[in-house]
Known about the structure:
With about 400 residues, the chain is mainly alpha-helical. It has helices at about 5-15, 25-35, 35-65, 65-85, 90-105, 110-120, 120-155, 155-175, 185-200, 200-205, 210-230, 230-235, 245-265, 270-290, 300-325, 330-389. The longest helix is centred in the C-terminal third of the chain and has 59 residues, at about 330-389.
Amino acid sequence: MKRKDSVLFIFYRFFANSALFVPIIVVFLKYKTHSSARALSIIGVYSLVIMLAELPTGVIADTFGTKRTTLLGVASAILGSLVLGYGNTYSVLLLGEILIAISVSLRSGADSAFLFGISPDIGAYKKYESFSNSARYIALCTSSLAGSFLFGINKELPFVTSSIMFAAGFLFASFIPEKNLGKSIAGKGVADRKMHLNEFKKLFRIKGLIPIIILSALTGVFFSTVYWLVQPYLQSVGFPEKFFGLVYALSFVSSAFGSFVSGKIRFKERNNYLQIVWLGVAGMLIPVFLYLFRSPTGILFLLLNQFLIGFSYPVIFSAIQKKIGASKLRATALSLESLIQRLFLTIMIFFISTAISCNGIGKSLLLADFVLSVLFIVSLYASYTSSRS
């Protein structure tokens, strides 16, 4: 391993994650389509594409190499950003979001595998994975602050600037040599991926696991739904668009702090399960508070939502892995939870995009919250009964 390659990777992660359009994307799509419903439907397609592309893009990385996949992902982000910025029709804007979604899926896991190839020593890998993830969060915070400010100057500027930042990330990644593991290893990767798909059915044999996975996924959907409605909510309460980036920057800090706090707590198995239940209850209540506090005061609940997002992941992952016990299906179980969460989130976004034109953001959020709450309670009952049988 050359230290220079790992440092280049840190720079790649910083620039490749400097998406300045994050804090204004929904507002921008609404501005372009003249409709909150159409804007959210595009976000729904984005979520759907990520869900559908997750497994195929893993096969691509195994077959064609992690560096090529990473570079292809960044190139897709560059093109998608420009298409979004200069798109004026629904279909073109939809294409831009699809390209961004493909970029996210292609780089999901591929860039970490790319880093492991240049830092095969586990100690060095963890070190540079930590450093590069820190660079990623710094990029998210700084680009959020800059994005809404540039949006106030020119609506297309955050997208053009993002494409330039992504291009810099592409350049840094291209300078890093990939460790060629050979075609035999790549072929084995595809076989392993197919075997991984067949492992899903084995999860159903573990007593009480599937209800816990569904319960965990629904808990995550509560928080993720609110996250995607931050911009329409801020706009509906008259919060200045130029300060949207500040809210997002604080949100990323809040999520990081939530994850830190959660990591410091050691739960017993029963308490870990109850923690998911309490997180789900909190997820039910946040949309209610956002509806009641239709003013900038509601930002406090948006930040609480982000704190709970960061807090929830260690709790959810821990609960699922404790339920699995000695089984070797941990990664498969977490993949299933992620897929179910993405599926429910996509459905909720499309649901709200349909309801928002008639009911407005507040009532649509409450309606989605009610539907999710019913599903959560049913899942909770199923989980409880399976644990007692």
